[in-house]
Design brief:
Layout: H1 2-5, H2 10-32, H3 37-58, H4 66-72
Helix pairs in contact: 2-3
Protein name: Mobile element protein
Length: 75
């Protein structure tokens, strides 16, 4: 995970860490309450979309070289 975060802005890494902790806690809490696993996964996915939106708004669109962007994708 640390390799994936190399070169990313600190704001995005901070948001991602906050999201990871929050969603893990929420997942465990909902399962402990007796919610069905599929319902829990759907709830977590809906909340994750909101965080993805927040991260997307933080990213500044640049005219980067397309080959450089592809090189950053995990293999």
């Amino acid at each position: 995970m640390q390799r994936r975060q190399e070169g990313l802005p600190k704001e995005i890494v901070d948001i991602a860490w906050h999201v990871q902790q929050r969603l893990c806690r929420r997942y465990q809490r909902l399962l402990q309450k007796g919610k069905h696993r599929n319902v829990v996964v759907a709830a977590i996915a809906r909340e994750m979309i909101a965080y993805i939106w927040a991260i997307a708004r933080e990213v500044v669109v640049s005219e980067a070289d397309p080959k450089a962007r592809i090189a950053r994708l995990p293999t």
